Amino acid sequence: MVDTAFGTDEGAHQVIEEVDGAPTDADAADGPDTTGVDATGSDGADVHGLDLAGASAWFDAFHRRFEAEAAALGDLDRRAGDGDFGNNILSALRRCRRRLDEEPPRTPGELFLGVSHGFLNTGGTSGPLFGMWFRGIGRATDAPVMTLGALAAGVADGTATVQRLGKARPGDKTMVDAMAPATDALAAAVDAGLDLPDGLARAADAARAGALATESLRARRGRAAYVGDVARGVLDPGALTVALFFSAGPPAPGRL
Amino acid sequence: MTAQDSIAGQLLVGAQRRQFVNEPGDIVAEALEGLEGAYPRLIRWNREPSFVIRAEPAPAGRVAVVSGGGSGHEPLHVGMVGEGMLDAAVPGAVFASPTAGQILAATQAAARDAGVVHVVKNYTGDVLNFAIAAEVASDDGIEVRQVLVDDDLATTSTTGDGPGRRGTAATVIVEKIVGAAAAAGADLDRVAALGRRVATTSRSMAVALAAGAHPGRAYPSFDLPSDEVEFGVGIHGERGVGRRAFATADELADQLVRPLVADLSIGRGDRVIAITNGLGATTGLELAVVHRRVTLILEAAGITIERALVGPYVTSLDMAGCSVTLTRADDELLALWDAPVRTIALSW
């Protein structure tokens, strides 16, 4: 699909394939995640929401995929920003991991709050903004299971906070370009009565489309805003990271 | 500028630097450890997350004042921690904002029961991370007000958008006034309002004779030919707004002061607090010569310098150069300026 402006840029291709859901080496070792979607019984058919194991597996998959893509995302940032994105987010994710090990969460909400803590202790501006986004998700519920409705509300809250603090609107070539469509997709999925895996799949599609559309945009916020038209033709690494997060979400048991 | 000029300039002005440094990445932590050892009765360093806090906490009932920003501007901000000024300072890496997590931890540690004022220099990373820390702190019931310092006249926007003026040496005056107001028992809104008033009526302008070099780097961030100065520099080693001819101390001081007077619209009968600030490598002897001229210019204009500081207060690593800051003063601000202070950098 994305044979547009990348030319010989292997790294960017790799990220796109990853966001597209194609299996990569990062997943090969342990296969797709089948854990973590809460089911009322052991048959795994009834999917109400995300339990702690599911949230934990989701974060682990996101972390693993980002580790695999950090260099490519850092390269995108070097072409339009200051090049510190990959390393900053990588150090944030590792900090999240340590935090979750030191203070094990008891609910999915607590898990995302732990992730938020890791990001808020990261330098730069993208890291702390992601911290506030995950904080929105973490605050959505303190129940043992996070429903699609709670997740949708949390993502909406986090996205609104990122927009307010980062002063970015959709179309400014930032992480918001993936967060906003994912927020809308989740809300629509709730209205349509979808279950959590289907809702997450919709969000992943929307985030991916939003991230890919940043390629043709001229940056109005963030570091890339300083380089003007130079940033055209370069995907926004923040938006791609959001797409990577949703695409790492746990699929439904029995649908693999 | 020709290549030949550039080479000549580098040989004369920007020759290779040597520094007292171990591992460049350790310089901030090692410096904090050194200061804590030197001034144990004034400050305490919390290592992780890193922030510096008063050794003896202020009494309950007082508004707490927290500031911070990238390192490389010493004695700002750690040198301003103590009675009558900052309750805590949050140092980032060299020229990089501290993290929101550091600021949050410092805010929680400094907060008494009357709210916290954040004094923030106007840079995107600092403003965002302080705003995030303030928002998260409010979950703990800590009320925070942000006072933004944006005094650098060189970065006045002509279009009205963009990040706005940078924050530079007026930060010292804002921190002194805000700290004194908090010590006097003013409430949160009152302390913040005073800080904003000082920030609004302060302007600074700087000139560099040579750029500074990052720790561990042998060469400065830009080169200057020996017959030129960089006018309108900030405090992060970036280029200024233009090159001007190198000139006498008096002539350069004139070029710094006149735009400040014009922009603040001050004239006969007005009163100011002034800082002639060294940017890191300029001697006290030179700064005093510049300040002499600042005084003469303002006297001739009928403006009274009520209080002044002359020295390195807000530096840019080892940049050679100086800035002049003027703040409108009245009896209320002067009383707060004169109130007792006991920090590493200011003490009276």
From TrEMBL, chain A:
Biased composition (Low complexity): 21-41
Name by which UniProt lists this protein: DAK2 domain-containing protein
Record carries keyword Kinase: yes
SUPFAM superfamilies, A to Z: DhaL-like
Protein species of origin: Frankia nepalensis
Family annotation (PROSITE patterns): DHAL
Pfam families (UniProt xref): Dak2 (PF02734)
GO biological process terms held by the UniProt record: glycerol catabolic process
Keywords tagged on the record: Kinase, Transferase
UniProtKB/TrEMBL annotation, chain B:
CC per GO annotation: cytosol
The EC number(s) this enzyme carries: 2.7.1.121
Keyword vocabulary terms for this entry: Kinase, Transferase
Molecular function in Gene Ontology: glycerone kinase activity; phosphoenolpyruvate-glycerone phosphotransferase activity
Family matches, as Pfam families: Dak1
Annotated InterPro entries: DhaK_dom (IPR004006), Dihydroxyacetone_Kinase (IPR050861)
Annotated ranges, domain DhaK: 23-348
Domain of life: Bacteria
GO biological process: glycerol catabolic process
Protein's UniProt name: Dihydroxyacetone kinase subunit DhaK
Originating species: Frankia nepalensis
Lineage of the organism: Bacteria, Bacillati, Actinomycetota, Actinomycetes, Frankiales
Gene giving rise to this polypeptide: dhaK
